[in-house]
Automatic annotation (TrEMBL):
Glycosyl transferase CAP10 domain sequence ranges: 454-739
UniProt source species: Aspergillus coremiiformis
InterPro entries, per the entry: CAP10, O-Glucosyltr/Glycosyltrsf_90
Identification of the protein by name: Glycosyl transferase CAP10 domain-containing protein
Protein keywords: Membrane, Transmembrane, Transmembrane helix
Domain of life from the UniProt record: Eukaryota
Transmembrane segments: 45-65, 71-89, 190-209, 216-236
Length: 743
């Protein structure tokens, strides 16, 4: 593990060392390498020319780096560094021509070894200072050290009779030919790797001294990449032949049901004010807030497809009815005055329809004020003044104890503000789950040790109380990057909240940041999209301070999609004689997943390095590259994922995993507008296989991508967000009306 990062870096540049060595040989031809052993100079073979070696090296480097140009330039750096180290460390014996000293292996082996030992000790010293003491495993360190020494010994022996290029070419061949074909993203990549390894093997054979005939037996090594890639190819073929092709896949049922439910929901929306009024009273058992009729007219005027489905608002505001209006206002003011509250106080002025936000010590509000003003600007004169607190952090804030929900004589002194950043917060978050809820969830699991289940009910899928295992499955519950908990009935607006939390939800300003806005010019038609699942992003989601980063949601997802966990078994559905059954297999078709971290962050140095070594990190990717795949994954970061609307608006199909509730939950339907993915992701391999590799799956994928895209233009317009906020402000105005008694 220790030198894996370094290994990755240098191995990518190794192929380039070969042409450099050749140049060096040409400069010092009488002294260097094995050509000195024979007195008559060889005629220069085509393979031995600098430009052919250079081209071959270039091809291999680009193939290893998956044709990523930036990665290519980065890989040149270690080559340059090695050259400098070489020039600096090699003892200068005899005549020295220019920058590169002449190298005599036998004479310099001892002084060189000493310097290498010194260098290694220095590296260990620096490492211990930067990363803390990293415990070693003596046996494996010793074994790998001995193996390395032995390799170099043999290399030196061989190089005496030919050229030092044998060292780099052998090593490059070893690296490419043993690349695990199951992790490759495409057939093209596999093909290039096979070509590159055969090319390198050819170089090795050519450089080696000895009779051509016996050397030719070495071509047998070409079987290593050939056989492994063939095995992978056959495994993919085999997996595809067992697919469920008819419409009997469980996904089909979920889609049909969800579609029907959504159509019914749209149809039953109230058609006139009386119906909307009755619907409100029927649902919530209270009168709608003052101004509700004007809201209805506004929504109707702007063709809001949704009139009655605003349970998200009701669920958020109803706990506050138990406080008097004056009490609600007092708490807002007092909490904002608390220096450690980290909240913005925003004041909506009813006459001008403008919002002004202020913070005790911050000036940048992440465009919260701007976003409110943009969405509420058209509402002059229809609302009273309203004040509310806004949370600018990604993570949600509010936990309302049930005890408080029941009493009406609360004082604000009962409100607790605590900084729980970088600590496990699960126990706190689930403090008020009733023991009954916990009990049922726990008995379900052991009863059926292994069932492949798709998310059928999104609200129980995100319910922390029903899923005690989530405590060790999400960065937010394990080690939130920032978590400033507010315990008490405080009216705070957040962009997302966990099931047990009491934040009031509003549309995130991030959805309107330029980097997250959908631009059709960057999208491509379905037929031209890659038939795979795409995701790239950074390791946000939790702050890694110990080995628990393996349990964070983003890390678990990338680990699965990159097939990194040894001996992991994936679950698939099979159909035999009309009966569905489940099978477990170690096979995961890497061709269907184009998934990688592009940045390792939010971690202490030691755990950054561990993650860097563990994952196949891509140096950089175009932010719109997602739109070139048919399936696009979306997953929580520290809070809600800001890129979600871009994916929803696009011609690709979002597969969404989240623990957060959002303002849009009443209008966005799983299996109609997107595909939900569970927290444990057990169903993901089968789901991706079905949606990419069967005809019915592909048709469904495209349908849902289209439905999500067209619904986005009807139900997620700016005006729809305005309609939501308008209704929310009506409720907030009623809540904080000083003349309202506690209910
Ligand atoms: C909150 O806690 C985190 C982690 O312990 C710490 O880094 C941060 O400075 C704290 N913030 C404040 C304002 O105390």
């Amino acid at each position: 593990m220790r030198d894996e990062t370094l290994l990755k870096l240098t191995s990518a540049s190794q192929p380039l060392l070969t042409p450099f060595l050749l140049i060096a040989e040409r400069c010092d031809s009488p002294r260097m390498g094995g050509s000195s052993t024979s007195d008559t100079p060889h005629p220069i073979h085509l393979i031995d020319t600098v430009w052919v070696t250079g081209l071959a090296g270039l091809f291999v480097v680009l193939t290893l780096g998956d044709w990523d140009r930036r990665g290519f330039f980065l890989s040149i750096l270690p080559v340059a560094a090695l050259l400098i180290v070489y020039a600096a460390l090699t003892p200068r014996i005899g005549r020295s021509t220019g920058f590169l000293p002449i190298f005599d292996m036998e004479a310099s082996i001892l002084p060189l070894s000493r310097r290498v030992v010194c260098l290694l000790l220095m590296v260990i010293g620096v490492e211990t200072v930067v990363f803390g003491f990293v415990p070693m495993e003596p046996i494996s360190t010793l074994t790998s050290g001995l193996t390395k020494a032995l390799t170099w010994y043999c290399m030196a022996k061989i190089a005496r009779h030919c050229s030092w290029r044998i060292a780099t070419t052998t090593r490059v061949f070893a690296i490419i030919s043993t690349r695990n074909p199951f992790t490759l993203a495409s057939n093209t990549q596999a093909l290039f790797l096979v070509i590159a390894s055969i090319l390198t093997l050819g170089q090795v054979i050519h450089i080696l001294p000895g009779p051509t005939k016996s050397k030719s037996t070495l071509w047998a090594f070409a079987l290593v990449p050939l056989v492994s890639n063939l095995a992978n190819f056959l495994a993919i073929r085999n997996a595809q032949s067992l697919l469920i092709h008819s419409g009997e896949h469980p996904i089909e049922q979920l889609i049909q049901e969800a579609k029907l439910n959504f159509a019914r929901m749209l149809q039953r929306q109230s058609q006139d004010y009386t119906a909307a009024y009755e619907q409100y009273r029927h649902r919530y058992g209270v009168e709608p807030p003052p101004g509700f009729e004007a809201w209805y007219e506004f929504a109707k005027l702007h063709q809001s497809p949704i009139i009655d489905e605003f349970d998200v608002i009701y669920n958020a505001v109803s706990p506050f009815w138990k406080l008097s209006g004056q009490n609600v206002l007092d708490i807002i003011n007092d909490v904002h005055r608390a220096p450690q509250s980290e909240l913005w106080l925003c004041i909506f002025s009813g006459q001008q329809a403008t919002v002004q936000c202020s913070h005790a010590h911050r000036t940048f509000d992440r465009h919260i004020e701007l976003s409110f003003n943009r969405l509420l600007g058209a509402l002059g004169g229809v609302l009273p003044d309203v004040r509310f607190l806004v949370n600018h952090l990604d993570e949600p804030r509010v936990l309302i104890p049930p005890r408080m929900r029941r009493t009406d004589t609360l004082g604000h002194e009962q409100i607790n503000l605590t900084n729980l950043s970088r600590q496990p917060v699960w126990d706190k978050l689930t403090e008020f789950c009733s023991s009954q809820e916990r009990g049922t969830a726990q008995t379900i699991y052991p009863a059926e040790p292994f069932t492949l289940s798709f998310v059928a009910d999104i609200s129980s899928a995100i319910d922390l109380c029903q899923n005690p295992e989530y405590g060790a499955m999400h960065g937010l519950t394990l080690s939130p990057t920032s978590f400033r908990l507010v315990e008490g009935a405080v009216l705070i607006l957040s962009t997302g909240a966990l099931s047990t939390m009491g934040d009031i939800l509003y549309p995130s300003a991030a959805y309107n940041e330029s980097e997250f806005i959908y631009d059709e010019r960057n999208d491509v038609e379905w037929e031209r999209k890659h038939n795979n699942l795409y995701w790239a992003g950074s390791t946000t989601g939790g702050f890694a301070m110990d080995g628990m980063w393996r349990q964070y949601h983003r890390q678990r997802f990338v680990e699965l999609a990159q097939n990194l966990k040894p001996r992991r078994r994936y679950c698939y559905l099979r159909q035999q004689d009309g009966v569905l059954s489940q099978v477990r297999s170690s096979f995961l078709n890497g061709r269907l997943f184009d998934v990688a971290f592009t940045r390792i962050m939010q971690c202490e140095p030691k755990y950054c390095r561990e993650q860097d070594a563990y994952f196949n990190v891509k140096s950089w990717v175009d932010k719109d590259k997602a739109l070139r795949s048919r399936l696009v994954f979306d997953i929580d970061g520290n809070g809600i994922s800001g890129r979600y609307y871009k994916l929803l608006a696009s011609k690709s199909l979002p597969l969404k995993q989240t623990l957060f509730r959002e303002w849009h939950d009443d209008r966005l339907r799983p299996w109609v507008h997107y595909i939900p993915v569970s927290q444990d992701m057990e169903e993901l391999p089968e789901m991706v296989l079905y949606l990419t590799s069967t005809e019915s799956g592909q048709i469904r994928a495209r349908e849902i991508a289209d439905q999500g895209r067209s619904w986005f233009t009807q139900g997620f317009r700016d005006i729809d967000q305005t309609i939501y906020l308008y209704r929310l402000l009506l409720e907030l105005a009623r809540l904080q009306d000083p003349s309202r008694p506690a209910m």
